[in-house]
Amino acid sequence: MNQEKFKKIKKACFLDRDGVINEDTGYVYKVKDFRWIKGAIEAIKLLKKNNFLIIVITNQSGIGRGFYTSNDVKNLHKWMNKTLKKQGTQIDDFFFSDDLPSSDPNSRRKPSPKMICEALKKYNLDKAQCFMIGDKQSDLEAAKNAEIKGFMFDSNNLKDLVEEILDNINN
User: Quick one: CATH architecture of 13-170?
Assistant: First the structure.
């Protein structure tokens, strides 16, 4: 990604992938298994319209388990953006951890804030203007550990939640 165009943008929405952007059917890494969550594309468009960077933060332990490769994940992310670009939008960056669940203090796996902190630094973001949407407690813990707001996605339409969050931020 060209960082020059992001110099003025100081805010971002961090999105978990499986269960927030796409249906979590277990170890999703193939295009044929990917199904957008209702309202996901519209939510991304709305966030972009409100000048948020969109950054995916996702645990992908299937790599560490040998179920698929990091290239499989990167290829799926490229396909996601190709699909989004046809809709006039995009995800700005993807961060993923291939770490297995463990108590390793060096793990990048959520609830560790490391992936979020990498993105905050890379894009020189203002923590106060950033938030994370996830569907698991570990997503909210990662947000808290990175000192940004976290929101639980537990409905069936991502756009509805994003509208609610933006209303609260803007008022």
Answer: 3-Layer(aba) Sandwich (3.40)
